[in-house]
Amino acid sequence: MFYYLRLNMKVNSSSGLNATSTDCYFDFMVRSIYDKSKKVINANDKQKALISYLTGELIPFNSNWGEVEHVLIPIFMDKKAHWILGHLDVANWHMDVYNSSFKTIRDNSVLDTVEPLRNVIPHLLRSSKVLKFEPPEVPLYCRLCKDIPHQTNGKDAVIEDDAECSIN
């Protein structure tokens, strides 16, 4: 799904939206280098691969994060077996989080899931120097969006709708 969104964002410049996305492996790798108990980033060989996402080199039709305004990030809540969507607003330095099961999955669980992203993304952006400005050394501000369609069928297909809405 995100492959087609990236392709559409690259090819269809008439939309006026300057955006890209990651894939599920980005989220998995970010969580693997962040130690929640110590609140530290264990930079290792995965950091190079993560920076390849930011430079637009790792996945097809990806863009350099320094050349876009928005980045869509699929995020897996492994304790809940549920997908949510992160929408990074690069220029305004915050991330909107879309959870289609907000009536059954508590906000604290969502915030706990995105904590590694809030801390690792600024670190990666400073390390990679892809942005035209120096990112703040604080975690990303996250806003939980409530004005989205609610999931009623027990499936995670709503993340696709959230992603489509966020780029249109």
Automatic annotation (TrEMBL):
**Which InterPro entries would you find in this protein's record?**
Papain-like_cys_pep_sf (IPR038765), Peptidase_C48_C (IPR003653)
What positions does the domain Ubiquitin-like protease family profile occupy? Answer: 37-156
Query: What are the protein's UniProt keywords?
Result: Hydrolase, Protease
Give the Pfam families listed for this entry. Answer: Peptidase_C48 (PF02902)
Output the Gene Ontology terms for molecular function.
peptidase activity
Q: Does the keyword Disulfide bond apply?
A: no
Q: Which superkingdom is the protein from?
A: Eukaryota
Q: Where is the signal peptide?
A: none
Q: Which Gene Ontology terms describe the biological processes this protein takes part in?
A: proteolysis
Record's family? Belongs to the peptidase C48 family.
Protein name as catalogued: Ulp1 protease family
